[in-house]
Amino acid sequence: MKFLFTAAALLAMPLAASAQTAPAPAPAAAKLTIDSSIETIAANPKGKAILDAQFPGMLAHESYPMFKGMSLKQVQPYAQGRITDEQVAKVAAELAKLN
After folding, report:
1. What pLDDT, in 10s, does the model give residues 42-84?
2. What SS3 string covers the chain?
3. Taking Cα atoms as reference points, which of 57, 60, 45, 48 lies closest to residue 83?
4. pLDDT given at position 94
5. CA gap 67, 77 in Å, rounded
6. How do residues 13-24 score in pLDDT, each as one tens digit?
7. Neighbouring C-beta atoms of residue 41, cutoff 10 Å
8. pTM, full prediction
C-alpha cells in the first residue's frame, strides 16, 4: 500500500508533531557487533575499513540507503550469496577486536 501525502495533508497535521524532540544519540562508546546496523559499523572509521575489506563496494552500492539500517545477518538472505557465513564470521572477529 502506498501512502501519499499532499501539501494540504501535511499542513493539516497537528503542530504538536513538529515539536517532537530528536532521538538521543547513541553512546559514543557503544560496542560494534555483528548485530549492529551496517550504517552504525560504517560510521566508525575502523568498522568502515572492516566492511570495505570484506565487502568492497558495499557502502557505495545503489541500494545502500535501503539496507544500511540492517545488520549483515539481516541482509545476507537477500545478497544472493555475496555475503557468506565465513565473511560474516570474519567481520564479527574483527569487530570484537575493536571493543
Report:
1. 999 999 999 999 999 999 999 999 999 999 999 999 999 999 9
2. CCCCCCHHHHHHCCHHHHHCCCCCCCCCCCCCCCCCCHHHHHHCHHHHHHHHHHCCCHHHCCCHHHHCCCCHHHHHHHCCCCCCHHHHHHHHHHHHHHC
3. 57
4. 97
5. 12
6. 444 444 455 555
7. 23
8. 0.69
Question: What one-letter code names the amino acid at 9?
Answer: A
HSE of 80 in the Cβ direction (CA atoms, 13 Å)? 0
Q: How far apart are CA 28 and CA 40, in angstroms?
A: 11
Residue with cell 550469496: 81
Q: Are 71 and 38 in contact (CB under 8 A)?
A: yes
Domain ranges of the chain: 28-98
One-letter amino acid at 13 equals: M
